[in-house]
Structure formats: C-alpha cells, structure tokens
C-alpha cells in the first residue's frame, strides 16, 4: 500500500468503528460502545499522524500523544476529554478496571461521550 492507501485505510476504519459504536449504543451495550468510540478516534488520529510524518504511527492508544504527534493544537479541555476517552480503551479491556467503567457506563454517560467524540472524529478526519 502506498501512503495515501494507508491513510484511507485508517480513515475508513475510524468511520466504520464509529458506526458500530452507534449501533452498540442503540443496543444498550454502553461499555463496548465507549471502547469502540476510543478505537475510532485512535484510528482517525493515526491517519493524521501518517499524513503529517509520512511514517507509521507508534503502536500506542493515547489520544493526547497521538494528537501531539499529528500536530493538532488542542485546548486543556480537549486534552482532558481525550484522556477520559483514552481510558475507555484500558477500562473496557482489563477485568480489574472493567467494573468501574460498567458502573459509569449509563446511557447518559455513553451518549455524552458519543456526541463529544463525534465532533472530535469530524475534526480528526479533516485533511491537514
């Protein structure tokens, strides 16, 4: 794959995952919706990293670090929100953290982060 194909691969994955997160939200599977939301944003950022650096993104899940590598300018509030969303990746995967996220993962909580993440996704998918 050439560079543009790789970027497109990450962008398509981000969009597909976000659609799946919405389905999970509608199906009341809030924990996994939050996990997939994080994955979607991660993929969109990895497309931006690839676009900016012309190199593969580091194999990390930290949205704040990826946004920095991608050269995006973020506010303190955006960084805080990205840190929370990054946590969904860890909390949904590991049993000792999962219970805490399950308790937080109500419809309102998941919907709130779904809506916020939808805006981030639009931003992250914009070409530089």
From TrEMBL:
All copies of domain HEPN, residue ranges: 11-120
PROSITE patterns: HEPN (PS50910)
Coiled coil feature spans: none
SMART domains reported in the protein's UniProt record: HEPN (SM00748)
Keywords noted in UniProt: DNA-binding
Domain of life the protein comes from: Bacteria
Organism: Candidatus Berkelbacteria bacterium CG_4_9_14_3_um_filter_39_23
Gene Ontology molecular function, alphabetical: DNA binding
Family matches, as InterPro entries: HEPN_dom (IPR007842)
Entries under SUPFAM superfamilies matching the protein: Nucleotidyltransferase substrate binding subunit/domain
Pfam families linked to this entry: HEPN (PF05168)
Keyword Iron: no
Protein name: DNA-binding protein
């Amino acid at each position: 794959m050439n560079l543009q194909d790789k970027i497109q691969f990450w962008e398509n994955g981000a969009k597909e995952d976000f659609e799946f997160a919405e389905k999970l939200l509608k199906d009341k599977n809030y924990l996994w919706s939050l996990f997939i939301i994080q994955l979607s944003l991660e993929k969109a950022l990895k497309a931006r990293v690839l676009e900016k650096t012309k190199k593969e993104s580091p194999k990390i899940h930290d949205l704040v670090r990826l946004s920095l590598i991608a050269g995006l300018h973020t506010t303190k509030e955006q960084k805080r929100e990205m840190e929370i969303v990054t946590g969904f990746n860890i909390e949904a995967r590991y049993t000792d953290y999962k219970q805490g996220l399950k308790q937080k993962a109500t419809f309102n909580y998941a919907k709130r982060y779904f809506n916020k993440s939808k805006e981030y996704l639009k931003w992250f998918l914009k070409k530089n």
